[in-house]
Amino acid sequence: MRKPKSLHSIRCVFAITALLIAHGFGSGRAEASEPLALVQKGLELSKTHCGRCHIVSKADRFAGISSTPSFMIMIEALSDWQQRFDTFMARRPHPAHIRFAGDNERPEDLPSSIAEVVLTLAEIEAIRAYVDQLAADLGKS
């Protein structure tokens, strides 16, 4: 018998679905004059939050944890890299230390394994814009 999904996982799926709809259909996207700013913001957010474990750019190739795949390796080696980036908040180990802004605080008996990351949908969209640009730079868009 399958174990029911946690409320956090369900919220992640709904929020990510909303982000994908906005990402796919242009709703909530930056205006044409702002895409570079969105990509730059995504790079900064990726370095700050994702860079604790992942290498997020070629310039930071000595950062991250050696057992954690870099953004570039995921894009180059995984055929489903887009889906993985779109659903990262629901993929282990991310739910253990990432939550959406506005979510309830983490229960005291279930502490985060590392310093907790709290992201908004706009920040996730910026990270995804950076990843899309990185993929384009790698010829994988």
UniProtKB/TrEMBL annotation:
Is Transport one of the keywords UniProt gives this record?
no
Keyword terms of this UniProt record? Heme, Iron, Metal-binding, Signal
The terms under GO molecular function for this entry are:
electron transfer activity; heme binding; metal ion binding
Residues in coiled coil? none
From which domain of life does this come? Bacteria
Q: Which region is the signal sequence?
A: 1-32
Residues of the Cytochrome c domain? 37-135
Q: Which named protein is this?
A: Cytochrome c domain-containing protein
